[in-house]
Design a protein that fits this description.
The chain has a single domain, classed as Ribonucleoside hydrolase-like (Inosine-uridine Nucleoside N-ribohydrolase, Chain A), CATH 3.90.245. 38% of the residues lie in helices and 18% in strands. It contains twelve helices and eleven strands. The strands form two sheets. Strands 3-2-1-4-5-6-11-9-10 form a nine-stranded mixed sheet, sandwiched between helices. Strands 7-8 form a two-stranded antiparallel ribbon. The longest helix is centred in the last third of the chain and has 19 residues, at 220-238.
Length: 317
């Protein structure tokens, strides 16, 4: 991989660590264009303790254990409860176990988000690849928090109303609808979305050929990917998707590699809080980007996405 000619992008990743979240973390840990400052964990895909295990396993696989702090955050949605996705992800890592006994930082994830952005106002990109509970709590605690974030990239929602947990709602939004609404209303200086549909379903798919190409690398990191990817690959293909889906990795790559974004458009976004469409997102096109509430990637370079992840998986034994 060619070293970057510009300084790496400082990142914080807020995650519900399972499957593609793990691969997104690997990209942020290993791509020289990224400077991952912290991992914050929110309730989401799998049992919270399993998510913590998975984060430390990823750090181990990346050879970065002890270098990037892990902060534990909210274990329930704002309104209470937890909606898991273990039917999709299994345990999120294909039964792999970490060999380390590393411990999370004592500082709560919300406190870490507030502190890190106060220490470097206008510098950090936050990549939110799980439910938005931690981000909403930070907004609730400190009204100036959003203004200190250089950009917030949210993996969530759908541009065309196609859901993956209900007919209308995407999982990360649905798993904490009130948090998503609070984040959307918080006036981040740059709010960007990587949605489930159509961009992920068109440009973020790794079909069987791509998975076999990673398997053929013969590396520990490639093996980790194949095993952690098996459950969502099986689930997605059984439900008519042409392979495993990788919107979380795309979200990280969009923050560090502008070239992966083929088209990005301005929108006003809102979140449906009530009724049968609860958790759905409404993206209304806006002609003037200066007055839009967000942008969303509408076309991504799927080959560039695959190449970026393949490159970091090709090293490390």
């Amino acid at each position: 991989m060619t070293l970057p000619s510009t300084p790496p992008v400082p990142l914080v990743i807020d995650t519900d660590t399972a499957s593609d979240d793990c691969f997104a973390l690997l990209l942020a840990l290993l791509d020289p264009r990224a400077d991952l400052r912290a991992i914050t964990i929110a309730q989401g895909n799998v049992d919270f303790a399993q998510q913590v295990h998975n984060a430390f396993l990823v750090l181990e696989v990346a050879g970065r254990l002890g270098e990037v702090p892990v902060h534990l955050g909210e274990r329930e949605a704002l309104a209470g409860g937890w909606i898991g996705a273990e039917d999709v992800h299994g345990d999120g890592v294909g039964g792999q176990r970490r060999e380390n006994d590393a411990q999370a930082e004592p500082e709560h994830a919300v406190d870490a988000l507030l502190r890190l952005t106060a220490e470097a106002p206008g510098e950090l990109a936050i990549i939110a690849i799980g439910p938005l509970t931690n981000l909403a709590r930070a907004v609730e605690r400190d009204a100036s928090f959003a203004g200190r974030v250089r950009e917030l990239v949210v993996m969530g929602g759908s541009l065309d109303g196609v859901g993956n947990i209900t007919p209308h709602a995407e999982y990360n939004i649905y798993a904490d609808v009130e948090a998503a609404a609070a984040v959307v209303a918080a006036d981040f200086p740059r709010l960007r979305f990587v949605t489930w549909s159509p961009v992920t379903l068109r440009d973020g798919i790794f079909d069987a050929g791509r998975v076999e190409e990673i398997r053929a690398l013969g590396t520990r990191r490639g093996e980790f990917f194949v095993r952690a990817n098996q459950a969502p690959f099986d689930f997605d293909t059984a439900h008519g998707v042409g392979g495993s889906t990788h919107p979380d990795t795309l979200s990280v790559l969009a923050a560090i590699d502008p070239g992966v974004v083929v088209e990005e458009r301005a929108f006003d976004v809102s979140v449906v809080l009530e009724g049968e469409r609860r958790g759905a997102t409404s993206f209304a096109p806006v002609a003037d980007a200066a007055v839009a509430s967000c942008t969303a990637i509408t076309v991504a370079d799927g080959e560039r996405l695959f190449a970026a992840l393949r490159d970091v998986l090709a090293n490390g034994g």
